Amino acid sequence: MGAITARLSVMMFLQFFIWGCWFVTMGSFLAANFQATGAQTGLAYSTQSWGAIIAPFVIGLIADRYFNAERILGILHLLGALLMYLMFRSENFAQFYPYVLAYMIAYMPTLALVNSVSFRQLSDPSPQSPFVRVWGTFGWIVAGLVISYGFHWDAPAAQAEGALRNTFMLGAVMSALLGIFSFTLPSTPPTARGGQFSLRAALGLDALKLLRDRNYLVFFISSVLICIPLAFYYQNANLFLTEIGTENATGKMTIGQISEFGFMLLLPVFLLRFGIKTTLIVGMLAWAVRYVLFAYGGPDNVTALLLIGIALHGICYDFFFVSGQIYTDSKAGEHYRSAAQGMITLATYGVGMLIGFSVAGAISDRFLANGVHDWFHIWIYPAGFAAVVMVLFALLFRNEKISYSGRS
Protein backbone atom coordinates (compact mmCIF):
# COMPACT_ATOMS: atom_id res chain seq x y z
CA MET A 1 0.00 0.00 0.00
CA GLY A 2 1.49 3.33 -1.10
CA ALA A 3 1.73 6.37 1.15
CA ILE A 4 -1.16 8.21 -0.52
CA THR A 5 -3.37 5.12 -0.52
CA ALA A 6 -2.64 4.61 3.18
CA ARG A 7 -3.60 8.21 3.99
CA LEU A 8 -6.79 7.96 1.97
CA SER A 9 -7.64 4.71 3.78
CA VAL A 10 -7.21 6.42 7.15
CA MET A 11 -9.48 9.22 5.92
CA MET A 12 -12.18 6.71 4.97
CA PHE A 13 -11.83 4.80 8.23
CA LEU A 14 -12.32 7.95 10.33
CA GLN A 15 -15.12 9.25 8.07
CA PHE A 16 -17.34 6.24 8.68
CA PHE A 17 -16.19 5.53 12.23
CA ILE A 18 -17.57 8.96 13.14
CA TRP A 19 -20.95 8.23 11.55
CA GLY A 20 -21.21 4.70 12.92
CA CYS A 21 -20.29 5.60 16.51
CA TRP A 22 -23.48 7.59 17.16
CA PHE A 23 -26.00 7.23 14.34
CA VAL A 24 -26.81 3.56 15.05
CA THR A 25 -27.54 4.15 18.75
CA MET A 26 -29.20 7.56 18.51
CA GLY A 27 -32.73 6.10 18.73
CA SER A 28 -31.82 4.24 21.91
CA PHE A 29 -30.15 7.37 23.31
CA LEU A 30 -33.16 9.58 22.63
CA ALA A 31 -35.57 7.10 24.22
CA ALA A 32 -33.42 6.52 27.33
CA ASN A 33 -32.29 10.10 27.97
CA PHE A 34 -35.01 12.36 26.56
CA GLN A 35 -38.01 9.96 26.57
CA ALA A 36 -38.39 10.92 22.92
CA THR A 37 -41.51 9.90 21.03
CA GLY A 38 -41.35 7.98 17.78
CA ALA A 39 -42.14 11.19 15.91
CA GLN A 40 -39.25 12.99 17.60
CA THR A 41 -36.87 10.13 16.87
CA GLY A 42 -38.01 10.18 13.25
CA LEU A 43 -37.41 13.93 13.17
CA ALA A 44 -33.86 13.43 14.45
CA TYR A 45 -33.09 10.70 11.91
CA SER A 46 -34.62 12.71 9.06
CA THR A 47 -31.77 15.20 9.46
CA GLN A 48 -29.78 12.73 7.35
CA SER A 49 -32.23 13.30 4.53
CA TRP A 50 -32.13 17.08 4.88
CA GLY A 51 -28.36 16.86 4.80
CA ALA A 52 -28.53 14.77 1.62
CA ILE A 53 -30.86 17.31 0.01
CA ILE A 54 -28.69 20.31 0.96
CA ALA A 55 -25.32 18.63 0.23
CA PRO A 56 -25.37 19.29 -3.55
CA PHE A 57 -25.61 23.03 -2.87
CA VAL A 58 -22.58 22.93 -0.56
CA ILE A 59 -20.55 20.95 -3.08
CA GLY A 60 -21.73 22.88 -6.15
CA LEU A 61 -21.53 26.38 -4.67
CA ILE A 62 -18.36 26.03 -2.58
CA ALA A 63 -16.29 22.88 -2.92
CA ASP A 64 -16.32 22.62 -6.73
CA ARG A 65 -15.71 26.33 -7.29
CA TYR A 66 -13.65 28.13 -4.65
CA PHE A 67 -11.71 25.93 -2.20
CA ASN A 68 -9.66 22.76 -2.15
CA ALA A 69 -11.75 19.70 -1.28
CA GLU A 70 -9.43 18.58 1.54
CA ARG A 71 -9.66 22.04 3.20
CA ILE A 72 -13.46 22.11 3.06
CA LEU A 73 -13.41 18.56 4.45
CA GLY A 74 -11.24 19.69 7.35
CA ILE A 75 -13.38 22.73 8.13
CA LEU A 76 -16.64 20.77 8.04
CA HIS A 77 -15.29 18.09 10.38
CA LEU A 78 -13.93 20.67 12.83
CA LEU A 79 -17.36 22.33 12.79
CA GLY A 80 -18.86 18.86 13.22
CA ALA A 81 -16.70 18.25 16.29
CA LEU A 82 -18.13 21.37 17.93
CA LEU A 83 -21.70 20.43 17.04
CA MET A 84 -21.18 16.89 18.28
CA TYR A 85 -19.92 18.26 21.60
CA LEU A 86 -23.05 20.41 21.86
CA MET A 87 -25.15 17.29 21.19
CA PHE A 88 -23.26 15.61 24.03
CA ARG A 89 -24.13 18.53 26.34
CA SER A 90 -27.82 18.74 25.35
CA GLU A 91 -30.30 18.22 28.20
CA ASN A 92 -33.51 17.72 26.23
CA PHE A 93 -34.75 17.06 22.70
CA ALA A 94 -35.47 20.73 22.02
CA GLN A 95 -31.80 21.52 22.60
CA PHE A 96 -30.54 18.41 20.80
CA TYR A 97 -32.46 18.70 17.52
CA PRO A 98 -30.97 21.96 16.14
CA TYR A 99 -27.47 20.63 16.76
CA VAL A 100 -28.06 17.28 15.05
CA LEU A 101 -29.71 19.07 12.11
CA ALA A 102 -26.76 21.44 11.74
CA TYR A 103 -24.36 18.51 12.13
CA MET A 104 -25.93 16.44 9.35
CA ILE A 105 -26.01 19.46 7.03
CA ALA A 106 -22.26 19.72 7.67
CA TYR A 107 -21.55 15.98 7.54
CA MET A 108 -23.44 14.80 4.44
CA PRO A 109 -21.36 16.92 2.01
CA THR A 110 -18.22 15.28 3.42
CA LEU A 111 -19.35 11.95 1.93
CA ALA A 112 -18.93 13.44 -1.54
CA LEU A 113 -15.73 15.23 -0.52
CA VAL A 114 -13.91 12.09 0.65
CA ASN A 115 -14.86 10.41 -2.62
CA SER A 116 -13.64 13.42 -4.57
CA VAL A 117 -10.29 13.47 -2.76
CA SER A 118 -9.94 9.72 -3.15
CA PHE A 119 -10.77 9.49 -6.85
CA ARG A 120 -8.55 12.43 -7.80
CA GLN A 121 -5.51 11.30 -5.83
CA LEU A 122 -5.48 7.65 -6.89
CA SER A 123 -3.43 6.89 -9.99
CA ASP A 124 -6.00 4.36 -11.29
CA PRO A 125 -9.30 4.91 -9.40
CA SER A 126 -11.33 2.09 -10.95
CA PRO A 127 -9.38 -0.84 -9.44
CA GLN A 128 -7.90 1.08 -6.49
CA SER A 129 -10.93 2.89 -5.02
CA PRO A 130 -12.72 -0.24 -3.66
CA PHE A 131 -9.65 -1.04 -1.55
CA VAL A 132 -9.78 2.47 -0.09
CA ARG A 133 -13.57 2.56 0.38
CA VAL A 134 -13.60 -0.76 2.23
CA TRP A 135 -11.79 0.96 5.10
CA GLY A 136 -14.90 3.07 5.59
CA THR A 137 -17.00 -0.03 6.17
CA PHE A 138 -14.28 -1.31 8.50
CA GLY A 139 -14.45 1.97 10.43
CA TRP A 140 -18.23 1.60 10.90
CA ILE A 141 -17.73 -1.97 12.16
CA VAL A 142 -14.99 -0.99 14.60
CA ALA A 143 -17.17 1.83 15.97
CA GLY A 144 -19.96 -0.62 16.81
CA LEU A 145 -17.58 -3.12 18.39
CA VAL A 146 -15.92 -0.42 20.51
CA ILE A 147 -19.27 0.82 21.83
CA SER A 148 -20.61 -2.69 22.59
CA TYR A 149 -17.60 -4.75 23.56
CA GLY A 150 -15.09 -2.06 24.48
CA PHE A 151 -17.02 0.48 26.54
CA HIS A 152 -20.33 -1.45 26.96
CA TRP A 153 -22.25 1.82 26.59
CA ASP A 154 -25.26 0.07 25.05
CA ALA A 155 -25.73 -2.37 27.96
CA PRO A 156 -29.17 -1.84 29.62
CA ALA A 157 -27.68 -0.78 32.97
CA ALA A 158 -25.24 1.59 31.29
CA GLN A 159 -28.01 3.10 29.13
CA ALA A 160 -30.08 3.73 32.25
CA GLU A 161 -27.17 5.75 33.58
CA GLY A 162 -26.93 7.76 30.35
CA ALA A 163 -23.78 6.09 29.00
CA LEU A 164 -24.88 6.39 25.36
CA ARG A 165 -24.34 10.14 25.67
CA ASN A 166 -20.62 9.32 25.49
CA THR A 167 -21.00 8.25 21.86
CA PHE A 168 -21.32 11.92 20.93
CA MET A 169 -18.14 12.82 22.80
CA LEU A 170 -16.37 9.97 21.00
CA GLY A 171 -17.73 11.31 17.71
CA ALA A 172 -16.57 14.83 18.59
CA VAL A 173 -13.02 13.66 19.34
CA MET A 174 -12.78 11.58 16.16
CA SER A 175 -14.30 14.38 14.08
CA ALA A 176 -11.72 16.83 15.42
CA LEU A 177 -9.01 14.29 14.61
CA LEU A 178 -10.23 13.88 11.03
CA GLY A 179 -10.62 17.66 10.70
CA ILE A 180 -6.97 18.17 11.57
CA PHE A 181 -5.84 15.17 9.51
CA SER A 182 -7.69 16.48 6.44
CA PHE A 183 -5.32 19.45 6.15
CA THR A 184 -2.43 16.98 5.68
CA LEU A 185 -4.10 15.27 2.70
CA PRO A 186 -2.80 15.91 -0.83
CA SER A 187 -3.96 19.13 -2.45
CA THR A 188 -7.26 18.64 -4.30
CA PRO A 189 -8.14 21.98 -5.97
CA PRO A 190 -11.65 22.87 -7.20
CA THR A 191 -12.64 21.49 -10.57
CA ALA A 192 -15.10 24.21 -11.65
CA ARG A 193 -13.20 27.37 -10.67
CA GLY A 194 -14.64 30.35 -12.49
CA GLY A 195 -17.60 28.43 -13.88
CA GLN A 196 -21.24 29.29 -13.30
CA PHE A 197 -23.20 27.33 -10.70
CA SER A 198 -26.04 25.30 -12.16
CA LEU A 199 -28.78 24.26 -9.75
CA ARG A 200 -30.03 21.81 -12.33
CA ALA A 201 -26.63 20.14 -12.57
CA ALA A 202 -26.02 20.17 -8.79
CA LEU A 203 -29.28 18.30 -8.15
CA GLY A 204 -28.70 15.89 -10.99
CA LEU A 205 -31.75 17.20 -12.83
CA ASP A 206 -29.93 16.94 -16.15
CA ALA A 207 -30.59 13.22 -15.84
CA LEU A 208 -34.38 13.63 -15.69
CA LYS A 209 -34.49 12.55 -19.32
CA LEU A 210 -33.80 9.02 -18.09
CA LEU A 211 -37.33 8.97 -16.67
CA ARG A 212 -38.70 8.94 -20.20
CA ASP A 213 -37.54 5.33 -20.29
CA ARG A 214 -40.47 3.36 -18.84
CA ASN A 215 -38.23 0.72 -17.33
CA TYR A 216 -36.02 3.24 -15.58
CA LEU A 217 -39.09 5.15 -14.36
CA VAL A 218 -40.38 1.95 -12.70
CA PHE A 219 -36.96 1.44 -11.09
CA PHE A 220 -36.75 5.08 -9.95
CA ILE A 221 -40.19 5.06 -8.29
CA SER A 222 -39.48 1.68 -6.70
CA SER A 223 -36.19 3.04 -5.31
CA VAL A 224 -37.96 5.94 -3.63
CA LEU A 225 -40.67 3.67 -2.22
CA ILE A 226 -38.29 1.01 -0.88
CA CYS A 227 -36.51 3.71 1.13
CA ILE A 228 -39.64 4.05 3.27
CA PRO A 229 -39.23 0.61 4.90
CA LEU A 230 -35.44 1.14 4.87
CA ALA A 231 -35.89 4.03 7.29
CA PHE A 232 -37.49 1.70 9.84
CA TYR A 233 -34.21 -0.21 10.16
CA TYR A 234 -32.00 2.82 10.70
CA GLN A 235 -34.43 4.41 13.14
CA ASN A 236 -35.66 1.43 15.14
CA ALA A 237 -33.26 -1.52 14.92
CA ASN A 238 -30.93 -0.60 17.79
CA LEU A 239 -33.80 0.54 20.03
CA PHE A 240 -35.67 -2.68 19.21
CA LEU A 241 -32.72 -4.93 20.06
CA THR A 242 -31.89 -3.17 23.31
CA GLU A 243 -35.53 -2.97 24.40
CA ILE A 244 -36.04 -6.73 24.02
CA GLY A 245 -32.87 -7.40 25.99
CA THR A 246 -30.33 -8.31 23.29
CA GLU A 247 -26.82 -8.10 24.73
CA ASN A 248 -24.20 -6.05 22.86
CA ALA A 249 -26.84 -4.95 20.36
CA THR A 250 -24.62 -2.38 18.65
CA GLY A 251 -21.81 -4.89 18.22
CA LYS A 252 -24.19 -7.51 16.82
CA MET A 253 -25.50 -4.99 14.30
CA THR A 254 -22.02 -4.81 12.74
CA ILE A 255 -22.78 -8.28 11.33
CA GLY A 256 -24.77 -6.34 8.73
CA GLN A 257 -21.69 -4.42 7.56
CA ILE A 258 -19.58 -7.58 7.65
CA SER A 259 -22.09 -9.28 5.35
CA GLU A 260 -21.61 -6.44 2.86
CA PHE A 261 -18.12 -7.76 2.11
CA GLY A 262 -19.28 -11.22 1.10
CA PHE A 263 -22.34 -10.17 -0.87
CA MET A 264 -20.40 -7.43 -2.65
CA LEU A 265 -18.14 -10.17 -4.02
CA LEU A 266 -21.19 -12.23 -5.07
CA LEU A 267 -22.98 -9.30 -6.71
CA PRO A 268 -21.11 -9.27 -10.07
CA VAL A 269 -21.57 -13.03 -10.42
CA PHE A 270 -25.27 -12.79 -9.55
CA LEU A 271 -25.81 -9.92 -12.00
CA LEU A 272 -24.17 -11.82 -14.84
CA ARG A 273 -25.98 -15.06 -14.03
CA PHE A 274 -29.50 -13.83 -13.31
CA GLY A 275 -29.72 -10.26 -14.66
CA ILE A 276 -30.62 -6.91 -13.17
CA LYS A 277 -34.34 -7.60 -12.62
CA THR A 278 -33.83 -10.73 -10.51
CA THR A 279 -31.02 -9.06 -8.58
CA LEU A 280 -33.20 -6.07 -7.67
CA ILE A 281 -36.12 -8.32 -6.72
CA VAL A 282 -33.91 -10.39 -4.41
CA GLY A 283 -32.74 -7.15 -2.77
CA MET A 284 -36.33 -6.00 -2.12
CA LEU A 285 -37.38 -9.46 -0.96
CA ALA A 286 -34.56 -9.40 1.59
CA TRP A 287 -36.03 -6.27 3.19
CA ALA A 288 -39.42 -7.95 3.60
CA VAL A 289 -37.87 -11.17 4.97
CA ARG A 290 -35.66 -9.24 7.39
CA TYR A 291 -38.61 -7.45 8.96
CA VAL A 292 -40.64 -10.67 9.21
CA LEU A 293 -37.70 -12.24 11.07
CA PHE A 294 -37.60 -9.25 13.43
CA ALA A 295 -41.37 -9.42 13.95
CA TYR A 296 -41.37 -13.10 14.91
CA GLY A 297 -37.96 -13.19 16.59
CA GLY A 298 -38.50 -10.14 18.77
CA PRO A 299 -41.21 -11.15 21.28
CA ASP A 300 -39.19 -14.11 22.60
CA ASN A 301 -35.79 -12.65 21.67
CA VAL A 302 -35.00 -15.56 19.34
CA THR A 303 -31.33 -14.81 18.70
CA ALA A 304 -31.00 -16.92 15.54
CA LEU A 305 -33.84 -15.11 13.75
CA LEU A 306 -32.53 -11.71 14.81
CA LEU A 307 -28.98 -12.42 13.67
CA ILE A 308 -30.17 -13.74 10.31
CA GLY A 309 -32.25 -10.57 9.91
CA ILE A 310 -29.21 -8.43 10.64
CA ALA A 311 -26.98 -10.49 8.34
CA LEU A 312 -29.44 -9.91 5.46
CA HIS A 313 -28.19 -6.33 5.34
CA GLY A 314 -25.60 -7.35 2.76
CA ILE A 315 -28.31 -8.55 0.35
CA CYS A 316 -30.64 -5.65 1.22
CA TYR A 317 -28.02 -3.03 0.47
CA ASP A 318 -25.77 -4.58 -2.18
CA PHE A 319 -28.43 -6.32 -4.29
CA PHE A 320 -30.71 -3.30 -4.47
CA PHE A 321 -28.79 -0.09 -3.87
CA VAL A 322 -25.38 -1.02 -5.31
CA SER A 323 -26.92 -2.89 -8.25
CA GLY A 324 -29.24 0.10 -8.68
CA GLN A 325 -26.21 2.38 -8.96
CA ILE A 326 -24.75 0.04 -11.57
CA TYR A 327 -28.06 0.02 -13.48
CA THR A 328 -28.23 3.83 -13.32
CA ASP A 329 -24.64 4.05 -14.53
CA SER A 330 -25.45 1.79 -17.45
CA LYS A 331 -28.57 3.70 -18.47
CA ALA A 332 -27.01 7.16 -18.12
CA GLY A 333 -23.88 6.65 -20.16
CA GLU A 334 -20.75 8.77 -19.93
CA HIS A 335 -22.32 12.20 -20.39
CA TYR A 336 -25.02 11.98 -17.69
CA ARG A 337 -23.29 9.55 -15.31
CA SER A 338 -22.62 12.02 -12.45
CA ALA A 339 -25.99 13.76 -12.85
CA ALA A 340 -27.84 10.44 -12.79
CA GLN A 341 -26.09 9.25 -9.63
CA GLY A 342 -26.83 12.61 -7.99
CA MET A 343 -30.49 12.38 -8.96
CA ILE A 344 -31.00 8.85 -7.62
CA THR A 345 -29.16 9.69 -4.38
CA LEU A 346 -31.28 12.80 -3.84
CA ALA A 347 -34.47 10.84 -4.54
CA THR A 348 -33.65 7.90 -2.24
CA TYR A 349 -31.58 9.16 0.69
CA GLY A 350 -33.23 12.56 0.43
CA VAL A 351 -36.93 12.33 -0.44
CA GLY A 352 -37.57 8.61 0.09
CA MET A 353 -35.96 8.31 3.49
CA LEU A 354 -37.39 11.66 4.61
CA ILE A 355 -40.85 10.19 4.08
CA GLY A 356 -39.73 6.90 5.63
CA PHE A 357 -38.49 8.40 8.89
CA SER A 358 -41.76 10.28 9.31
CA VAL A 359 -43.80 7.12 8.68
CA ALA A 360 -41.58 5.04 10.99
CA GLY A 361 -42.03 7.57 13.78
CA ALA A 362 -45.81 7.57 13.40
CA ILE A 363 -46.02 3.76 13.34
CA SER A 364 -43.74 3.48 16.39
CA ASP A 365 -45.93 5.89 18.38
CA ARG A 366 -49.09 4.07 17.31
CA PHE A 367 -47.82 0.81 18.80
CA LEU A 368 -46.38 2.21 22.01
CA ALA A 369 -48.24 1.61 25.30
CA ASN A 370 -46.99 2.20 28.84
CA GLY A 371 -43.48 2.77 27.57
CA VAL A 372 -43.32 -0.59 25.74
CA HIS A 373 -43.40 -1.03 21.96
CA ASP A 374 -45.42 -3.69 20.17
CA TRP A 375 -42.52 -4.61 17.94
CA PHE A 376 -44.39 -7.36 16.09
CA HIS A 377 -46.78 -4.87 14.50
CA ILE A 378 -44.10 -2.19 14.06
CA TRP A 379 -42.03 -4.56 11.90
CA ILE A 380 -44.96 -6.10 10.01
CA TYR A 381 -45.81 -2.74 8.44
CA PRO A 382 -42.46 -2.22 6.60
CA ALA A 383 -42.36 -5.95 5.76
CA GLY A 384 -45.73 -5.70 4.01
CA PHE A 385 -44.83 -2.41 2.32
CA ALA A 386 -41.55 -3.82 0.97
CA ALA A 387 -43.38 -6.92 -0.29
CA VAL A 388 -45.95 -4.79 -2.15
CA VAL A 389 -43.22 -2.67 -3.77
CA MET A 390 -41.41 -5.86 -4.80
CA VAL A 391 -44.52 -7.37 -6.41
CA LEU A 392 -45.34 -4.17 -8.32
CA PHE A 393 -41.73 -3.92 -9.49
CA ALA A 394 -41.73 -7.55 -10.63
CA LEU A 395 -44.92 -6.99 -12.64
CA LEU A 396 -43.94 -3.67 -14.23
CA PHE A 397 -40.17 -3.93 -14.79
CA ARG A 398 -38.98 -5.67 -17.94
CA ASN A 399 -35.66 -7.46 -17.66
CA GLU A 400 -32.86 -6.03 -19.77
CA LYS A 401 -29.16 -6.55 -20.25
CA ILE A 402 -26.79 -3.97 -18.79
CA SER A 403 -23.13 -3.32 -19.29
CA TYR A 404 -21.43 -4.11 -16.00
CA SER A 405 -17.97 -2.58 -15.58
CA GLY A 406 -17.42 -3.33 -11.92
CA ARG A 407 -18.35 0.18 -10.84
CA SER A 408 -20.13 0.68 -7.50
3D architecture notes:
With 408 residues, the chain is mainly α. It has 2 domains: 186 residues, MFS general substrate transporter like domains (Growth Hormone, Chain: A, Up-down Bundle), CATH 1.20.1250.20; 208 residues, MFS general substrate transporter like domains (Growth Hormone, Chain: A, Up-down Bundle). It has 15 helices and 2 strands. It has a two-stranded antiparallel ribbon with strand order 1-2. α5 packs antiparallel against α9 and α11 packs across α14. It is globular and about 55 Å long. 51% of the residues are buried.
Q: What's the quick description here?
A:
The chain has 408 residues and is mainly α. The chain has helices at 3-20, 26-34, 38-45, 47-63, 69-89, 93-121, 125-150, 156-160, 166-182, 199-202, 214-243, 249-297, 303-311, 313-366, 375-396; strands at residues 368-369, 372-373. The protein has 2 domains: 1-186, MFS general substrate transporter like domains (Growth Hormone, Chain: A, Up-down Bundle), CATH 1.20.1250; 201-408, Growth Hormone, Chain: A, CATH 1.20.1250.
Blueprint (SSEs and pairs):
Elements lengths: L2 H18 L5 H9 L3 H8 L1 H17 L5 H21 L3 H29 L3 H26 L5 H5 L5 H17 L16 H4 L11 H30 L5 H49 L5 H9 L1 H54 L1 E2 L2 E2 L1 H22 L12
Antiparallel strand pairs: 1-2
Helix pairs in contact: 1-6, 1-7, 1-9, 2-11, 3-14, 4-6, 4-14, 5-6, 5-9, 6-7, 7-12, 11-12, 11-14, 11-15, 12-13, 12-14, 12-15
